[in-house]
Amino acid sequence: QVQLVESGGGLVQAGGSLRLSCAASGRTFSSFAMGWFRQAPGKEREFVAAISWSGGNTNYADSVKGRFTISRDNAKNTVYLQMNSLKPEDTAVYYCAADLDPKRMVAGAVFGYWGRGTQVTVSS
Q1: Exposure of 48 by Cβ count < 10 A (0-12 exposed, 13-18 middle, 19+ buried)?
Q2: pLDDT at 85 over 90
Q3: Distances from the Cα of 98 to the Cαs of 3, 12, 57, 84, 95, in angstroms?
Q4: Three-state DSSP state, 5
Q5: 3-class SS at 74?
Q6: Phi, psi of 15 (to 5 degrees)
Q7: Is 76 helix (H, G, I), strand (E, B) or coil?
Q8: Which member of 9, 39, 56, 81 lies 3.0 to 4.6 Å from 45 by CB, making a disulfide possible if both were Cys?
Q9: Is-contact 45 97, C-beta < 8 A?
Q10: What are phi and psi for residue 110, nearest 5 degrees?
């Protein structure tokens, strides 16, 4: 049983930056891979970024590579998504997610715990 709460979304102009946070509770946070997903109006939910339970490995969608950075602070039970050089096409609800099982690699993660999401709107 895990609870995830996202924060940090808002309205920003194209080229600007935001940092999203995801606070986790309910289990041993440091043992689980974490990820960020997003869903724009009229589109399917898509993968954005993920980080291994140890923090040593990350994966990014091609659309955000070089602009977004995922990180984690296990002491604070928090995952972050630093978003730079934002584009209007980044506009979406961003969701934090946690792996269902502990100590798996990012490539093997099955994200089954979800937060409620935080809105990111990028104006042109």
Answers
A1: buried
A2: yes
A3: 9, 27, 15, 23, 10
A4: strand
A5: helix
A6: 95, -10
A7: helix
A8: 39
A9: no
A10: -120, 105
Q: For residue 69, how far is the Cα from the chain centroid?
A: 9
pLDDT exceeds cutoff 80 at 1? no
User: In this predicted structure, what is the pLDDT of residue 81?
Assistant: 98
Q: What is the C-alpha separation between 65 and 57, in angstroms, rounded?
A: 14
CB 65 within 8 A of CB 84: no
| CB proximity list for 31: less than 8 A, separation 6 or greater | 53, 102, 103
Q: Would you say residue 49 has pLDDT above 80?
A: yes
**Mean per-residue pLDDT, 23-39:** 88
Interatomic CA distance for residues 56 and 92, integer angstroms: 27
In this predicted structure, what is the pLDDT of residue 54?
86
